[in-house]
Specification:
It is a single chain. This protein is of the alpha/beta class. The protein has 2 domains: 5-204, P-loop containing nucleotide triphosphate hydrolases (Rossmann fold, 3-Layer(aba) Sandwich); 222-236 and 248-365, Hypothetical Protein Yjia, Chain: A,domain 2 (2-Layer Sandwich), CATH 3.30.1220.10. The protein has 14 helices and 17 strands. It has helices spanning 18-26, 74-86, 106-114, 117-122, 137-143, 145-152, 168-181, 197-200, 215-219, 221-230, 251-254, 269-283, 340-351, 361-365; strands spanning 5-12, 34-38, 50-53, 58-61, 66-69, 95-99, 123-133, 156-160, 186-189, 206-207, 212-213, 256-263, 287-294, 304-309, 312-313, 317-318, 329-336. The protein has a 9-stranded mixed sheet with strand order 3-4-5-2-6-1-7-8-9, sandwiched between helices. It starts with a strand and ends in a 13-residue tail after the last helix. The structure holds guanosine-5'-triphosphate. Guanosine-5'-triphosphate is lined by residues 12, 14-20, 45, 102, 160-161, 163-164, 190-191. InterPro entries: CobW-likC_sf (IPR036627), CobW-like_C (IPR011629), CobW/HypB/UreG_nucleotide-bd (IPR003495), P-loop_NTPase (IPR027417), Zinc-reg_GTPase_activator (IPR051316).
Amino acid sequence: MYRPIPVSVLTGFLGSGKTTLLNRLLKDPVLSDTAVIINEFGEVSIDHLLVEQASEGIIELSDGCLCCTVRGELVDTLADLIDRLQTGRIKALKRVIIETTGLADPAPVLQSIMGHPVLLQAFRLDGVLTTVDAINGMATLDNHEEAVRQVAMADRIILTKTDLSEAQAELDILKARLRVLNPGAEILYAGSEETGYASLFECGLYNPETRTANVQRWLKAEAYDAHEHAHHDHVCGPDCDHDHHHHAHHHHDEAIRSFSLRHDAPIPVSTLEMFIDLLRSTHGEKLLRVKGIVQIVEDPERPVIIHGVQKIFHPPARLPEWPQEKRETLLVMIVKDLPETYVRELFDAFLGRPVLDRPDRAAMMDNPLAIPGFSPKG
Ligand SMILES: Nc1nc2c(ncn2[C@@H]2O[C@H](COP(=O)(O)OP(=O)(O)OP(=O)(O)O)[C@@H](O)[C@H]2O)c(=O)[nH]1
């Protein structure tokens, strides 16, 4: 059976160690038959692995990987890769890694795959890997919104240059800050033996070996729950005297919120669609990452998987059965400039769960003051 090729997106701020990590990873034979797409201006710096420069910007690495540098559209490059595979011009690929530029917003890269019907047949999104520099990470997050977004969208955060950082306390503060920005992403150390294939790849929903979905690992909902209680605590703690200027410089972080939504009864498909469509159409840009598993009324035995980045949502997929005993709808969201209460109240309203002092869905839909049959627009 044909299986979509997993795609990992490697992002991280300028100089944060993406290429160094990639170089190390590509030495692992497990990663042979990988195509690396460098979405980059300037030179490709994985030079010591290069053996041959093939045509049209595709470079063959010594260990059988392919590498190409994208200067145009990523979608075209991926489509070209499919074409080369199908026409036998390149051998079968096991994996694609896209390394973004340090200043890139990962959202459009994810959307190139999720929102493209043809690419979706050939590729599946595995995960977003974000490198964070242990020495400069704090200042980078203070000063660059792109870096904050890269962390907020990650499935795995890889701390680099920890070998240069002597102060464990500083590292702990950085980790705490990353945890607040993204409670679900595992934090790993670039230099560690454990930060290899097994910890960085296959972080998507499906386990290709067992052909099962690991929803728990993918959603990490309990991390969001624990985090909700601690959300407003300043990550440095009350006695912190570090010289990174405290609250004033965490303003990029302040805009980011992460939380989970739960519901223990099946939801009609139309309600789910309306909720997602409304969020998407009114606040799409603010949805950095939305993942979820939903029990629907029409087919409660087969949960629906939701995965969205901003306005683009992956076409909803059905799992053949519930991966866990508890059949519960669970959505996790990382949003920017969107109040959590707004999303919660909207969800409650769509589900018909009345909230104190708020209009429930019935009140929104059947306004007692409305004149039947009368529409203000005529
Ligand atoms: N000591 C140490 N140096 C590192 C580590 N990771 C990266 N570096 C160094 O940091 C510099 C930048 O690393 P790169 O891997 O080029 O970073 P990058 O994110 O690919 O950089 P851009 O492509 O410019 O965004 C290089 O000089 C690396 O040798 C690390 O874990 N430890």
